Amino acid sequence: MSAPYDNIIIGAGHNGLICACYLAKAGRRVLVLERRPVVGGAVCTEEIVPGYKFDVGSSAHIMFRSTPIMEELGLAAHGLEYIEMDPWAFHPIAGQPGGISFYRDLEKTCASIAVVSPRDADAYRDFIARFGEINEGVFETFMRPPTPGGIFGTIFKRNLFKPLSRRLWSSLDTARQLMTSYGRLIEETFESEAVRTALFWLAAQSGPSPDEIATGDLVGWQAMIHKHGAWRAKGGSGALTQALARCLESMGGEIITDAPVTRITSGSAGRARLEVQTADRAFFARSVTAACHVQTTFLNLLDPALCPSDLRHRVSHLRVGNGFGMIVRHAVSELPHYEGQPLNDQGISPVHGSLQLLCPSRAYLRHAYLDYQRGEPPRDPAVLAMTFSALDPTLAPPGKHVLFTWAQYHPYALSNGEDWDAIAEREADKIYEVVCRYAPNMRGALIDRYIQTPLEIERKLGLLRANVMHLEMSLDQMFFFRPLPELSTYRTPIPGLYLTGASTHPGGGVFGASGRNTAQVVNQDLHRRKI
Fold first, then answer.
1. If pLDDT is split at 50, 70 and 90, which confidence band does 160 have?
2. Is 108 helix (H, G, I), strand (E, B) or coil?
3. Interatomic CA distance for residues 523 and 373, integer angstroms
4. Which has the closest alpha carbon to 455: 322, 291, 330, 260?
5. What's the predicted TM-score (pTM) here?
6. More exposed terminus of the chain, fewer Cβ within 10 Å: N or C?
């Protein structure tokens, strides 16, 4: 047996690669095994339609640029470049030319809201000030392993030393707002239906329903976007993971693709604690980090002899949910023309670089959610449209564009006897029709498309039951509860086995905090010879 690796990472998604890069930077011998023929996981860009670069998972990188990861790993030197989305969100309003635009600059955003409701512009300014301070503390907890002492200590520190925080946290009403649902919080804070709807649809992107308790901060978190901005990787979402792969290899790390792992078991000799098996090879390591779904790790890959039966049972009962969305990637001949939005001579408006919130009312979104609860595709899907070729012409041929449409709510398991493969075209047509209602010029503009139903999302990306967050992002599965209390610090009861990725703290999205946090834990244990 050759000398074991210090760490083998299973899965080349962005968190797995970030973890690998930090370990390699610390001088560790690292191997990444990826089941697909390309790296990236759910942060990947492919030319599915010739000439068009389609993201097959995430598209907007809302949180990554708020971390120090790009600078710490020197990713710019490996070709990574970001373009800011500003405005970062746009809500067109029927009969109200211009709509509401959300800019990084708070005052520009308030000016846009004031056209619809001056009172709500003032309310939004105050709301962002209050939740901005709260979320500075939340962000601190996201950037390290979660423990009750660490989380409450951060809150106490900010409460003790910052006057604004003292005022906020002395108010029981602020605590109540955090514990209420985002639907209730939006309704009590704002009066305009247009403003309420825009914020409703933004908050819904993390998955929980508008009425779930302790979700108030899903709308408050956008205060961090006003501080750090929202970003788009030039060349496609996968440009991030491609740069990470180049970074890792430049530091001596290894990546093997087309290598689905079949088993994690005990190491057979020497310093190897664990053995990782693929279909035709076995690799040995002092430690293993599973950057795949926590249920895939414990229920499919890990040798049952290594795992207490009670832990397997608890992992099997984590709430993955029933999916909550589908996405269609379109190649189109032109961009959507929204009423009242000026176009330049190339047919591009500033809002084309934003998240376009195509949801006419809160009632509309609730009706879609009720269909989802019945296990049926939504009769009228709410849509988030993205046209990033307006910011980045490298995504499409000259004069052509990409249109990505994420829609909710779409159950993975259907209760009406239908099959996702059979109804994919029909449901994709419904999503495109929503775009056409807001921008009639899009009728006849479709060239080709790639449909990612919930079933296709699971098949291609390994996201069980099409939950892009791995596990539901509710309070009982967040912070030191994610995925379970005994697994929340990235360590597991199995010596040498660690977890990273969306199944762990702080959850889903293109953030990278989990990969960075896990690397610190693994490197610390390697240094202390715990593994």
1. very low
2. helix
3. 44
4. 322
5. 0.95
6. N
